[in-house]
Amino acid sequence: MAQTDKKFFENLTGAGKAIAVLTSGGDAQGMNAAVRAVVRMGIYVGAKVYFVHEGGTVIGSARCKDFRTREGRLKAAHNLVQRGITNLCVIGGDGSLTGANLFREEWSGLLAELVQQGLIDEEASQKYSALHIVGMVGSIDNDFCGTDMTIGTDSALHRIIEVVDAIMTTAQSHQRTFVLEVMGRHCGYLALVSALACGADWVLIPEMPPEDGWEEKMCQKLSATRSRGSRLNIIIVAEGAIDRHGKAITSSIVKDLVVQRLGFDTRVTILGHVQRGGTPSAFDRILASRMGVEAVLALLETTANTAACVVSLCGNQSVRLPLMECVQMTQEVQKAMDGKRFEEAVRLRGRSFENNLKTYKLLAHRKPESELPHSNFNVAVLNVGAPAAGMNAAVRSAVRVGISEGHKMFAVSDGFEGFYKGQIKEIKWADVGGWTGQGGSLLGTKRTLPAKHIDKIAEQMRKYNINALLMIGGFEAILGIMELLAARGTYEELCVPMVMVPATVSNNVPGSDLSIGADTALNAITDTCDRIKQSASGTKRRVFIIETMGGYCGYLASVGGLAAGADAAYIFEEPFDIRDLQSNVEHLTEKMKTGIQRGLVLRNENSNENYTTDFIYQLYSEEGKGVFDCRKNVLGHMQQGGAPSPFDRNFGTKIAAKAMQWITKKLNESYRKGRVFANTEDSACLLGMRRRAMVFQPVVQLKDETDFVHRIPKEQWWLKLRPLMKILAKYKTSYDISDSGQLEHVVLRRPKESEAMAAI
Fold first, then answer.
1. Residue 444 in marked binding region
2. Whole-model pTM?
3. Does the keyword Ligase apply (predicted)?
4. Per-residue pLDDT tens for 81-127?
5. Is there a binding annotation on residue 184?
6. Active-site residue (options: 141, 148, 154, 284)
């Protein structure tokens, strides 16, 4: 897009403005990244930026009793006016943000009182007459209405899942039941999503207490799981879990219940403050960086009449919402829970929470055969292309939702290669138990495309009477579904509903902002970069050149660079030459002279055929002589391996469930005269995340959006994040704000049944 077509940030200026940033309340991983983003973006626009100390975080975080009194707020107002600060960026939970809004509402009265006491003059009172506040929600509980995710939640889920994965191995060894208590005094998000991410047998949360008689039902479920051959049970309890009468359900109560009624060897693990600690996940670093920059933009665009707002995340897009609307809705949740209106409480939590709960119920609790619908449809699931962490969670979800909808589910081993060879077998509910946390592809996957074997694939479709196909994979999957679509005219067996779910570490599938596996790869890159940078701690100045995967897609290098605090990231989509390399070396040289000891440069593996990783390493080594030395690392397939991140488990689970529900709908629509026949464009779709929602897009419509030579989409949303990385690395650059959030209102709508799985 030409520069004149974009709304650039250069039109807005922070010159002469002062911004104060503070973290308040409980700490949350990612707060530091938010503070860094506010400070560097503020400096970039010419504002003067202040820390409010003791406000976990690098500037300290505290719950201030003095600020709850008017006298304390009067002192705070005096401190701000003395420094000319009228822009406040508050990072905290609903209590901190409510307090900040009260401070804003009292501002004119506080200034009048300061004038009366002779602490400031009338001129200062007029000059600093308006206080502008923008909030960012930092809370591991994800208990704030209006945003899909709060800063710190994803990192807390990482801590929980790390513990669950470790516990599962010892539980299997001893055939034990483990009861895990996680944080969430008033909100069950952590318990619910960790239960979804590890396939827990039972979960107890405050928003949806179990029905009376739950004790017997839970014990029956645990016993049934053991009788099917499982050697362990996992029960997750939120610390605020209650029954229908408001009585607390503690982890020790649950343990005693299991021991007394079933005699199972049972242990309790209370995670406690482990969930608050540790390094932030890649997701939280990126979220916090995006939110921090958005907060500065929001402050610069405020007028005297602009209401205090909070920067939120909706799907994959930043939005601004009136702070008090969000706070009031958050308070309504508690009122609904206090009034035992639990379904209303779940609905008020938002579509993401509501759909997490629906999905968990769908996958964890198997209905008796007598209650299942009988569709007589056969649905095949296969993985296509390279393995990606989260594929197994998607398969498990698809299989269990399919069975719940009355279908007979078939697993195809080794992708299209296994398909034409007849490596197809029925897969049952219990067969996918424990798959959620497994890395790689348990079904097996190959890059083979179907075109050369289309006749044999059609033969297998006929042999097994396959009525629908679900493909989970990367760019090969979209090529595969296109080839099957092209062959429909020749083979009627292929005239069935087909849907593809994107799963690739490269995140290069057109039609979706995100792919299963990309978050796990980003965490692998971020963790490795952290360790590599730490290896130079206390030594001489050093620059690390890191090569990432991705083919021609620069997503991992760019977004990984943003998460790891890189100084530069070289990608194919943004051509560079020797002058750019020289400029980057000079920039790093200047930074090193200011006392910074470490530099980080990422390079996508196919960014340039001549400027290779070796070339860049040698260039930096030569040009940096006397200032810094260099090391290089090629991360390779470690980006594809490992257990899936909580995000990928959750994303894979919910997107596959939604895909299966679409298949059921299409099967019913296309069943005529005793058979399934679907040959319309919308019967072969890709299910992807586009900005705020999950969208089904006919594959034929994606052809024009795709660069087939380089296997990337022609338009990629994350390219707009690249200037952000440069700004945070202290480069002078232009920042496109055409996609920045606009002030909206909190809307609570009842989702239609067809949209029931829309949110992630």
1. no
2. 0.92
3. no
4. 999 999 999 998 888 888 888 899 999 999 999 999 999 999 999 99
5. yes
6. 141
